[in-house]
Amino acid sequence: MSAIRMAISELRRITAGRLPVLAVLALLMIPMLYAGFYLYANGDPYSRLDQVPAALVVDDAGGTDAEGKAQNVGQDVATELTDSGSFDFHRVSAAEADRGVRDNVYTFAVTIPRDFTAALQSSGEFTPRQGILVLTTNDANNYLARTIADTLTTRVRESVAKEVGTQAADRFLTGFSTIHTRTQEAADGAGKLADGAATAHDGAARLASGAGELATGQRTLLDGAQQLADGAGELATGAGTLATGAGTAASGADRLSAGTGELATGLGTLRQATADLPAQSRQLADGARQVADGNAQLAAAGDRVAQESARLADQLDAADGTIAANLRERGFTDEQVQQALAALSTAKQPLVDGNARVQQVSGQLDRLGSGAGRVADGAEQLAASAPQLSSGIASAADGAGTLRDGATELSGGVRKLSDGATQLSTGATALRTGADRLVAGERTAVDGTDRLADGARRLDSGTGELATGATRLHDGLASGLDDIPNPAPGVREATAANIGDPVATRDVAYSQADTYGAGLAPFFMALATWIGGYVLFLLVQPLSRRAIAAGQSPLRIALGGWIPAGLLGVVQVTGMYAVVSLLLGITPVHPFATLALLWLTSMTFTAIVHALNALLGAVGQFLGLVLMVLQLVSAGGTFPWQTIPGPLYPVHHVMPMGYAVDALRHLMYGGELAGVVGTAVPVLLVWFAGALALATFAAYRKRVWTATAVKPELVL
């Protein structure tokens, strides 16, 4: 019996009767239903996000922009979100939003806080802080919804950042235009300043020259004023001295006149009084002599009394020793002797005092005698010269009268001289005061003209530097003016927009899936192919027992057992392909090649499941399920296969489903076909050949019947 006849016999067996036919039809529809319904349900979920309820809380208090206009970015964002239709947004309070997310009334919530606008405007006030969008999610509601909401808030943030950045850049560029205009005005003003500074420099030079000449003349005038002050001072000093001397002379002349008058009067009186002076002086000389002789005798008597008094005092002093010795001889103690001597000293004290007075009176009597002698001698001389004195006094009285008359005339002349000298002194003093004031004023004027000259020189130097600096300022402003941006309004707006959103993306897609479902189609079609091949062997026998019992070739038996499942698998994937491409609208770029690859994939997968069932029976059927799970997680159907854990890398590289998924992507999206022809097809063929070889080995083993084969422990 050939493999084809064995396959036809198996197909007849499983289609014998109405229910078997329905079962076969049901098995044929499993890949179609699995892939079709899953891809239908997930064909374009993003287009139906407007059915997802979301809470929107707007607490933004708003603010004012740079021009003073009211602005509320939070309200603008809320309007944009609700108008976009991206989600079914509901404007609610913060408490209601929080409660709704917890209770799954809302999938997530977006909160725009009270200071959102103020935070966005903070950079203009140099107190920068970020505006915060609060996204509240609950993965218990839906995990992917959080991911989609994150994408939404990212887009909102980028949109707000673009708008705010554009506005800030526009203000920045507007500021540059304003700076350009002001710099132009400053350059014009600097040019005028340079011209005025040059004119001022010329005037300052002339002022400095004139101030120097003025200072020289003022110094000459100061020298003359100083000379005048010195002469006036000398004149005032001389006039003062003259006035003082004249006053003194006037006073002396007055006293001289009065004195000469008194002298004349006195001399006249003296002449009358001394007319009898010669006779009287003689009498006086005789009497003085007699007095002198009597005083001499009295002095001699006093000397004798003084001598006796001194001798008596000496004797009393000498008696002290004698008395002391006598007292000691009579037995008196020294203390008693001293007391006696003290009493004796007290008793003789009046004698000592009297001796002192006697000595004093004796000396006075000696001096009196000597003086009386000199008076007597003088009286003798006076008596001898009295005639001449009387004649001289008469002559003097006559001359004093003449002197009195001349002194009176001198007093009148000197008084006039004193009055004139006083007036001269007053005028000279006033002249000196005025000259001093003139000198002080001239000195102040000299200082002022010196400062004026120095200031004029500094002014000349400063105006020169000012002119030079103003010229440099004008040149610098003029040369730097071109470096300050001054874009036209249209260019400024375009530049601001570019600064606010400097980076744009341009998608370059070598191949592209149109929808989310189209992106998942290669994975789920490959997975559905495996499931379809797996369920076929719920009806199809992996190996023909009759052929084994008849001793047919193991390869023929293996092919005879696989061909029915392989043909049914081709029918399965053809129906699945028709549903996906025609009903769901997921049209491959290479439709016939895609269908051919699905046929090859189905034949390979059915061969693998056939070999497992042929070799291991129920255990092999279970292993087929395990291999499906391993390929489900390692094929890279949703995320890139590189994102799977490292231990699953070998599974991805060995198992055929990952290659089938990659090949379907290239064929459906229009990718490079070299990988399909060079890698995926050979891998599938190798797996097909390996599975057929394993099924042949199973057929070879089945020729020997065992108790387990006759009565298996587990039948599925």
From TrEMBL:
InterPro entries reported for this sequence: ABC2_TM, Phage_infect_YhgE_C, Phage_infect_YhgE_N, T7SS_ABC-Transporter, xxxLxxG_rpt
Transmembrane segments: 21-41, 520-540, 561-586, 592-615, 622-641, 673-700
Localization (cell): Membrane
Secretion signal, residue range per the UniProt entry: none
Pfam entry (one): ABC2_membrane_3
Superkingdom field: Bacteria
A GO cellular component entry from the record: membrane
Protein topology in the membrane: Multi-pass membrane protein
UniProt entry tagged with the keyword Nucleotide-binding: no
The keyword Transmembrane is assigned to this record: yes
SUPFAM superfamilies: Methyl-accepting chemotaxis protein (MCP) signaling domain (SSF58104)
Domain ABC-2 type transporter transmembrane: 502-695
GO molecular function: ABC-type transporter activity
Keywords in alphabetical order: Membrane, Transmembrane, Transmembrane helix
PANTHER family hit by this protein: PHAGE INFECTION PROTEIN (PTHR43077:SF5), TRANSPORT PERMEASE YVFS-RELATED (PTHR43077)
Protein name (record): Membrane protein
Taxonomic lineage: Bacteria, Bacillati, Actinomycetota, Actinomycetes, Pseudonocardiales
